[in-house]
């Protein structure tokens, strides 16, 4: 009887020890780092609500500044580069990168001038396009037209006009200063976290009040814009692997949401581009 009780006590003690001993921790996969480089459009297609007119980035001066910027970004050693360009799934391979020399000499977009250049410096075999645009019967991801029409018919034009005035004033200020600044300096505002958050919240969330409770075009515009950006980040996620350092080059209107996803999506972290732009600006000044 005593021996049986002793055995039971020993078994119970072993069970407690086993339960209290932590299992070997499984090693978490390495974090995928994302550097979001927001940009004005070097070759503006005129599709934004307010458009900035960039000077010719193929000029000798701008090419020198872009080269310095690319060299500075390359010091981060990105392992993948994604650009705002629609290309087919599932590979998302940007076919124009294969003809690098021709693309660089003839195409002015920031995807080519910055993205391709950095990729070539680092001997990347590919550049990936991750833009999302409506196809077929898919809805408009930026339904500004219906919003403007609703505002006009419901005496809310003053709300839209006030918000557009903020954008236009900011663009006019930037336009006036652009010629005297380097490419890197011109990109600083587009990558300043405080500026990005302030402008995004004032403009996009400022449009939410456009509606009457039944028809809510302001809320719809915000929802559709979020959807486009979420789909873009999801495409990037298909390209990226754990441990990658992804340089993401997008129009700065996307930057707030891309930063949001990089900071909040499990397995990802955000790397600020602002310090690299400051360094590239200083280096550009040293070459003048």
Task: Determine the number of helices (DSSP H or I, runs of at least 4 residues).
Answer: 11
Strand tally, please?
A: 5
Strand content of the residues, in percent?
5-15%
Helix content: 40-55%
Model regions low in confidence, pLDDT < 50 over at least 5 residues: none
Strand order of the largest sheet: 3-2-4-1-5
Shape field: globular
Distance between the termini: 95 Å
Description of the structure:
The chain is of the alpha/beta class. The protein has one domain. Helices cover 51% and strands 9% of the residues. The mean pLDDT is 90.
Brief rundown of the structure:
Helix content is 51%, strand content 9%. It is α/β, with parallel strands linked by helices and 288 residues long.
Descriptors for this entry?
five-stranded parallel beta sheet
Topology overview:
Elements: H1 2-20, E1 32-39, H2 60-74, E2 80-83, H3 100-106, H4 110-121, E3 128-129, H5 144-153, H6 157-178, H7 183-188, H8 193-203, H9 217-239, E4 245-251, H10 255-264, E5 268-271, H11 274-286
Parallel strand pairs: 1-4, 1-5, 2-3, 2-4
């Amino acid at each position: 009887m005593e021996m049986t009780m002793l055995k039971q006590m020993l078994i119970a003690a072993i069970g407690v020890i086993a339960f209290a001993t932590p299992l070997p921790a499984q090693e978490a996969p390495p974090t995928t780092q994302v550097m979001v480089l927001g940009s004005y459009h070097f070759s503006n297609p005129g599709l934004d609500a307010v458009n900035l007119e960039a000077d010719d980035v193929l000029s000798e001066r701008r090419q020198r500044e872009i080269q310095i910027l690319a060299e500075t970004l390359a010091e981060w050693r990105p392992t993948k580069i994604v650009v705002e360009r629609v290309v087919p799934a599932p590979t998302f391979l940007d076919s124009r990168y294969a003809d690098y020399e021709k693309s660089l000499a003839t195409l002015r977009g920031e995807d080519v001038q910055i993205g391709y250049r950095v990729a070539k410096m680092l001997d990347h075999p590919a550049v990936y396009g991750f833009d999302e645009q409506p196809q077929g019967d898919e809805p408009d991801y930026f339904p500004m037209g219906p919003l403007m029409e609703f505002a006009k018919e419901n005496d809310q034009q003053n709300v839209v006009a006030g918000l557009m005035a903020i954008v236009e004033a900011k663009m006019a200020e930037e336009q006036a200063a652009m010629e005297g600044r380097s490419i890197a300096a011109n990109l600083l505002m587009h990558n300043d976290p405080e500026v990005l958050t302030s402008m995004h919240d004032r403009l996009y969330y400022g449009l939410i009040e456009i509606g009457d409770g039944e028809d809510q075009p302001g809320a719809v515009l915000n929802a559709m814009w979020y959807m486009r950006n979420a789909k873009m980040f999801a495409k990037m996620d298909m390209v990226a692997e754990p441990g990658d350092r992804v340089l993401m080059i997008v129009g700065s209107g996307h930057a707030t949401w891309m930063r949001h996803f990089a900071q909040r999506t499990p397995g990802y972290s955000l790397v600020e581009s602002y310090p690299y732009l400051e360094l590239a600006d200083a280096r550009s000044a040293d070459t003048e």
